[in-house]
Hints:
Blueprint: E1 6-8, H1 26-37, H2 43-65, H3 83-97, H4 105-113, H5 119-138, E2 168-169, E3 172-173, H6 205-217, H7 227-238, H8 241-256, H9 260-288, H10 293-296, H11 329-345, E4 352-356, E5 359-365, H12 368-381, H13 387-407
Antiparallel strand pairs: 1-5, 2-3, 4-5
Helix pairs in contact: 1-2, 1-3, 1-8, 1-9, 2-3, 2-5, 2-9, 3-4, 3-5, 7-12, 8-9, 8-11, 9-11, 9-13, 11-12, 11-13
Amino acid sequence: MRKGHIVALTIAIAIGCGPTIAAADVVQDWNAHALAATNAQNPFLQARSIAIVQLAVFEAVNAVKGDYEPYLGTLSAPGGASVDAAAIEAAYRALLGLGVAGSLGATYTSDLASIPDGAAKTDGIAVGFLAAESMLAHRTGDGVSPAAFFVPTSSDPGVWQPYAGCPLRNGVQVGILFHWQNLRPFGIDNSSQFRSAPPPQLQTGRYAKGYTETMDVGELNSGLRPLDRTDVALYFASAAAVHVWSQAASQVMTQKATSISENARIFALIAIAVSDALVSSIETKYHYIFWRPITAIRAGDTDGNDKTLPDPGWTPFIATPCFPSYPSAHASASYAARKIAEEILGGANHSITLSHPNTPVTLSYSKFSEITDDIDDARIYGGIHFRFDQDAGAVQGRAVGLYVCQNNLRPISGESGICRE
């Protein structure tokens, strides 16, 4: 059991959930708006959307400030252009282009109205508009659609099988997000670049150990799941990785009084890393097609391992996603984001409170590593993953995060913000 954080059943006023606490700049404000605007999207689509928005904001801010290597490299800003106007315009236009701006028009108008009229404001708006349009155009045809589904062809032990709640296509239950492995990444070279090593063989002690742990603590009515592990399972079932890490990073940014240029870069790098780690995870998942605990534990007498006792009625605590188990997508995405956050903001001595509009659970942390510890536990105590799924996701995520950070949006000069091994 992890004890490095405090769990409270209250709704905190925090970035990404209602009014925000003294956000340092418009980049942080509009990151919170973007998270709220995309909250209804699935975690994979939300990660892509936030990456587009935050890269548009980064390009706009960086065109004015010039502190980092650009992402697209197609923008320039007139001298004296308003960086606030550029960031606001880029965020809003990107959300509008993605079709999720909703009622943000009034906020957009109000925020721009707070900036004095003049050439600086006009130039900033123009830069932000072009940044958003350029990013949206860049992602056209990136593989986000049409949706594709996986049709199981084997019922052998160890192979993923659909379960209650999985969708039907042509009368057959299928796996979702099969096309996501072909989504064009933002910062890595291709989806198989960081493919995980194979999962453990079913007859091994490592498999049996993971099986037994999830069977014991992840069952719907398990008496071995403490209240705090119940809370983290529920929280991370609601909060997608891009929400978690954007919110955590924003609070640390405020505490460290980082600049608007630094903030635009950090948000963009985190969003890139999360999205690319999710693409990598799906590629690995459908490469190995490894079964979920809900199937494995009910069929434990078929796996050839005398240490895996079956429970035909076993049911997980939280709903199991309709795609293969190995590796954990939440782990892959979160360890990628953590790598960037630790490299740039430092790993410890923080004050972080995570909240989400879809759950009353709030979680408090002082280290980024405590967040990934809880995410690992959340998926096991939730009954949807084995411990080795989390371990593989951690390795994959760290590799994605390091590559993204070392090869994207690098500082023009100096050592600050450079990512190392």
